[in-house]
Amino acid sequence: MKKTFLFIVMTAIAIGGWSQSILSEVFNLPDVRERLLGGDASLLPSYEQKGTVYRDAEGNAVGALDFFKQNGWDCIRVRLFVDPSKAPGINKGEGVCQDIDYVARFGKQIKQKGMKLMLDFHYSDTWADPGKQFIPHQWATHTEEALCDSVYAHTKASLMRMKAAGAEPELIQVGNEITNGMLWPVGKINHNESDNWDILCRMIESGTKACREVCPRSKIIIHTEKAGSWAITKRFYEELRRHRNDYDIIGLSYYPMWHRNMGVLSATLDSLERYFPFKDVMIVETAAYYSHDNDPWSKPDTYSEFYPISVDGQTMFTKELVAELRRHKNVTGLFWWFPEENASGKEVTKGNLNRGLFDNKTGCALPSLRELQKFKTR
């Protein structure tokens, strides 16, 4: 009898019909969901190729992936562009270079370290984010149907290549920060209207279909960036539900300088658990400034109304974020964006963002890296 009950429970989890949080409440079971901790370290191979030295807080040289793992990280996120050779020069200077050859090599390195891989599909030749979702050069003249076919073919071919390289991802993002749609203008949406939701959901379906065929055990993430607006977040995922889109995890970006205060994030996470109880949530992008040194985009006090632009300010943000996320059972992942930034060696990017986890002057690990470990503590 006990074996039969256990089989039913495990089968329900495996097929995705019941989330582990729902099972825990219904059957009074312990919540055993795995929490993943990591970061989008897509540019790490470029830094290593330049001979950049990463150091611990005491100044000792370390291997970056090994050091992340020692600090409790178990998953690395890597972005993939369609053809980054066609990206504008300014974007290449910001780190747009991840084609399938690059990503397959890096993915294999990650897996050999015993870490999980999150593959982040940017369906573009350059950055795909709320302000830009440009159609790749190769797909420029495609019709709606042809764009959907290209999303499917590109996703399938890329995943087959990853598997052949020994780098099958455990997590796959179908699109990057797609609250406003993707493959503009064809797949662009307006949250005040009903236009284009059908085509956007068909594009997403094309990507997820390829994921299920090639990597059936992988979890699919749909990633948006309006954690500071519950109304928009709710509308987006309700449309996916209405169109019966197939995915596993709600992925959010949360940056304090753009997405409002921690209390707003908390309310969004509470609402997601109430309205979408069968979906786990991951913060797939977050970061905060510790400096504006050699930053061509910001003045010294830019964003300082949220957290001080200092090492202490970044540490304060990290402590508060981790404490907040640990309150929410539906949150099962936390990923820092661009943790590998390290300008202490030869130039890799044009200018500094200063939101990473290593000091750009010394290459030493910042205190926030240590604070992130607490997300994994039960």
Per-chain topology:
Elements (H helix, E strand, L loop, with lengths): L1 H14 L4 H8 L8 E5 L3 H6 L4 E2 L5 E2 L1 H7 L4 E6 L8 H4 L7 H13 L3 E6 L22 H21 L6 E4 L22 H18 L4 E6 L5 H13 L6 E6 L7 H14 L4 E7 L24 H15 L5 E7 L29 H6 L6
Parallel strand pairs: 1-4, 1-10, 4-5, 5-6, 6-7, 7-8, 8-9, 9-10
Antiparallel strand pairs: 2-3
Structure overview:
This protein is of the alpha/beta class and 378 residues long. It folds into 2 domains: 1-32; 37-376, TIM Barrel. 37% of the residues lie in helices and 13% in strands. The relative contact order is 0.14.
Please outline what is shown here.
With 378 residues, the chain is α/β, with parallel strands linked by helices. It has helices at residues 2-15, 20-27, 44-49, 64-70, 89-92, 100-112, 144-164, 197-214, 230-242, 262-275, 311-325, 367-372, and strands at residues 36-40, 54-55, 61-62, 75-80, 116-121, 171-174, 219-224, 249-254, 280-286, 331-337.
Any key phrases for this structure?
disordered N terminus, TIM Barrel, 12 helices, two-stranded antiparallel sheet
Instruction: Give the second-level CATH assignment, the architecture of the largest domain.
Output: Alpha-Beta Barrel
Bulk shape: globular
**Most strands sheet:** 8 strands, parallel, barrel
CATH level-4 homologous superfamily of the largest domain: Glycosidases
* Helix proportion: 25-40%
Low confidence ranges: 1-21
**What Rg, in angstroms, do the CA atoms define?**
20 Å
In DSSP terms (H or I, runs of 4 or more residues), the helix count works out at 12
CATH topology of the largest domain: TIM Barrel
Number of strands: 10
**N-to-C SSE string, H for helix and E for strand:** HHEHEEHEHHEHEHEHEHEHEH
Structural class: alpha/beta
Q: How much strand content do the residues show?
A: 5-15%
Q: In whole angstroms, how far apart are the ends?
A: 31 Å
Q: For the largest beta sheet, what order do the strands appear in spatially? A: 1-4-5-6-7-8-9-10
Q: Count up the domains.
A: 2
The average pLDDT is: 92
